[in-house]
Fold each of these.
Amino acid sequence: MVGIFAGLKWHLVTSRLRAAGGAKKAWMIVGFIAALVVLGFVAFGLGSLRALPLDAVPLMVTLLTLQLVGWVLTPLLAFGVDETVDPQRFALLPIRPPTLQRGLLLTSLIGYLPAANMIVLLGVACALSVPWSLFPVAVACMIVQMLLCVVLSRAASTSMSALMSSRRGRDLGMAVGLVIFLLYMAFVIFVNSPGSREPSGNGQAIRSGVFNVADVLQWTPPGALATLPGFVAAGQWGRAAVAAVIALAALALAWWWWDNALQRSLTTVPSSTEGSSPSHGAQDTAVAVGVAGTMKVVAGRDRVLAWRDPMRRMPWLMVLVLTIAWPFVVVRGQGAVFAVAFGALLCGAQAGNQYGVEGSGLWLHLQTITDRVRARGEVLGHAVVALVPGMVIVLVGVAVQAVARDDLGHVPAALGACLAALFGAVATSTYLSSVMPYAQPQSRKSAFVSSVPGQKGRSFVAGIGFLIGGLVVALPTAVCVLLSLLVDPVWGWVALVVGPVTGLIALAIVVQLTANRFLQNGPEIFEIVRAGDRV
Amino acid sequence: MVNPNTSGDGSSPTGTALPAYPGAQDLIAATHGQALVLRGLTKAFGPKVAVDHIDLDVPVGSFFGLVGPNGAGKTTTLSMVTGLLRPDGGRAIVAGVDVWADPAAAKARMGVLPEGLRLFERLSGPELLSYLGRLRGMPLDVVRQRSAELIRVLDLQDAGNKLVADYSTGMRKKITLAAALLHSPSVLLLDEPLEAVDPVSARIIRSVLTQYTHAGGTVVFSSHVMALVEGLCTHVAVMAGGRIIAAGELAQVRGGAASLDDAFMHLVGASDMQEGGLSWLGSSPA
């Protein structure tokens, strides 16, 4: 029975390769070989750290802990990547839970990701085998680490499977994605901050940080596994035994948790809708009379959805953090106000793919938005919902940088550049949403999937296009900014006028073009974007 | 009355590339009294012809069932009539307006309930109705009064402010029907409105639709449940393989057959399961 599971997983893993023909197959094989070579280098690099045993052990402690955390969190972020993750799929098969659990363990070990992990772990084993006679011990530790990763990941995903099949659970998954992004930003800023004891961005600072962290982490199961070979080599048998008990007890506990979760998930039906948060009955009173009326109606709905729908809300939170925090990371001292313009471009991109974001729900707009006035109002409504918060974020970003870096002199020029970039990106994104629409996955099973198979090229063009378009619209303003820096600061005030004016002109042109295109090609746009329902 | 041109082969009378039917204005004048008129409507997806030059007339005030097996072309036909899918050729005229020549006027006269499409999932039912009504430019108090009444009649009051994303299948069909009725259209185009709907919701939907036709509205709906069509419809068209193989008043299409189901099986050329197979059923499990 366990063999059948292994065969099934192997079939799933190789299905894309088998389905591919000729040239595509060759490219996939080239890709695999390239990935193998890269992984080989990574493993070799890790292995060569054995020359520095003092650095190697703390580093491996951190690495193995991160690996375990990654395995546990992945199913929450990208539920549904692996068909065998959802135990409900096996609920109707006549299989006893212990057999199912062993079979699922084996399937979890077969795949590209586990294979890559095993190669990396082999490198870790080499790094920890000082002297080489310890290699068998290190390999045994890495096998336990791999099993720990898989079993704990499965236990967590099985416990969450009921939750993740509900709308609320998937919303939560997107929130977790944001938390990880925020932690990453905080880490980058912390490591780079001039306030830390060591000079910023210095290798020594990172090294001492890792050492401190590893001190604590060595008492966790992956940390124990990384330190165990060292204790054996030093003859510290007591410490070695404690490390072994920590690791094996964790594995046993994880196995028991998985067993429990599996039994429960096979015998209970997930409640998918109970406990979902209701709306609070938004009371909008605008009526679609004329362009302005339609704009108000559409913008009112978009504003409500931006709060309620994590797929719309999360990008805004990320943009907010990037616009305000990112300039601290990339630019030192004065001039950081200009780095806010990058955040302004990203704010503008929130107006992008305005038809695709609806999925097949776009049919409601196809039925109701049928004339020029309403089509223009709709386009403008979507644009306003990107412009208003975008302007607030950009203003705050510029203000924060100007005050923090004592750089008030550059504010007019920076603000002009930011507004030009924001309006330019909104205009370009709006236009691209009609000429280069792409389907957005509507199932929200993964926080990191932004396009559907077969439309990666479209989403890529749309993603690059807004940057280029935004920069083109901002070009006149950029010239004024340059003049303000090189010739006379008064040009900064010119930039502050030129930026919004060029942006508004671009937007006015684009609203007409986009509305006309929607009216002419509505059914074709609908055909493209409704593919988002399938993913 | 049903169009006499509706024929088994589904081709236009002359068989030439040029449309053999009158121009839109003449056609509209000639088909006065019809809620929906299709002439030579065609759609192909690559080599597969999904809808093959179909002609159809649906009289005003009729309860019209479009039946056929899966893959017959019902959804493709309705998508072309509702303006969601561009036809390769032919005309669709709804309430005297050519859908693809004047979509704005046509869409104002039709209410649509498509199959398998999402709504604005993160709005509640009342919010969805309010949004769509206001987007159509209807006065605020009319929108409020009608949506409250639709929600009451369709028994969606208990849902309160629940988001559409959390609605059951029956509730989704009902709120979509409410959205289709909100602007008081003269023709309703419904794709599988009772598919996977619980009996209570199904009964409510049926009675609302019947009331709508009694008030002079026209309902065109697709289904593959023959008993339902037989119980509800005044007229029926049978589709198979992208063509209309029979159309007319219910009794006329049923002919001498005992039920519409039997007539349908005969029309589409399907036969009952062969006897003698599956003899192992009921033996001990393997």
Note: Residues 1-21 of chain B have pLDDT under 50 and may be disordered.
Amino acid sequence: MQRDATLARRQKVIHAPTDQALLDRFAGPSAEVERQSPQRIVADPKSVERDLARLVLSVVELLRKLLERQAVRRVENGTLSEEEIERLGETLLKLEARMGELKATFGLGDQELTLDLGPLRDLVSGCD
Amino acid sequence: MTYVYAIADRPDEPLPSQSGLHDEALAKVICRDVVAVVSAFDGWRLSKAEDELWRHEEVIEALMSDRAVLPMRFGTLLPSRQRVGDLLCEAYGALVKDIERVRGHVEIGMRFLTASEGRSEDDPSVASSCRLPPRGTRPGSVYLWAKVARDRELQDRRRAKLSLVRAAYERLASHANASRLDDEPDDRQETSAAFLVSRDRIVSFREVVDEVANAHPELALLCTGPWPPYSFVNAGERATSGSDDCHAA
């Protein structure tokens, strides 16, 4: 949103949607999400456990989504038997449930488990 | 280290009075009738902070006021002015061609969103489509087939969006001297395009943008500019990025 405001101030906007909600979506991740992203652990004794959990769970969540993505591709390609689909699906289902429990334990939301992987981000967003 | 802002013609023209990043003075590195505009880089850190990006932009736009310019990407660094000069001379022919190609032109940027586009895995409209009848009744199969259905839905949406975007893009491209469509963005940002437009056709291009927006109410367009022709620099970027001893932040 700040970026768009700066563009407007510098008279760089030629055409923009009049719908503010649409305009906001052009702004990309909100500053709040960027602030919450686990770029580093703050060495504060009060928050270090949660920050560490956030970092670890971010990596686990990334791997979980990659596994899920790979599983979907294998199903699409028809390389799995029904039994294999069931086993894989059950594993992923339990993993997702367990992740939900851990997130609740540490009071973490999905947006807080976002890793900025630069050019690799699409790999992850494609798993959504 | 030497920070490079742009490569331009008319090396004898005075540089803009403003300073560069971190208030470093601007300087010229000349090879025949081509000049690179640079400043010292004494190890300070490039942060991509908004004011630094705009300072880079302002230097280039000031140069564009009285000469043809090949803008360099923010963060273009070379080890020394000597190296900048060597690269200018090595790529001289290609640089001159590039300068002629962009002379009198600016870049207009465009970003596209579809009105129904979801960005979150919690997008309820996508979630509802996952309630397709699953194959099998066991929990693992139901879970995985729901993911497959959701994946297909997202792919269908993406294809439909790209079809819309391409139609709009083609219409706009027909009014530009050159254009580029990035329909495979490498992050979760929206599809984007860039158009090389003659300075004296900016107003008419703006009218075409309005027409396209009206013709495609299902698309949201964010059109910005005029910018230096960042997306239409070939030789300058090759010259600097082809060097082993430079990096872009």
Note: The CA atoms of residues 23 and 39 of chain A lie 27 Å apart.
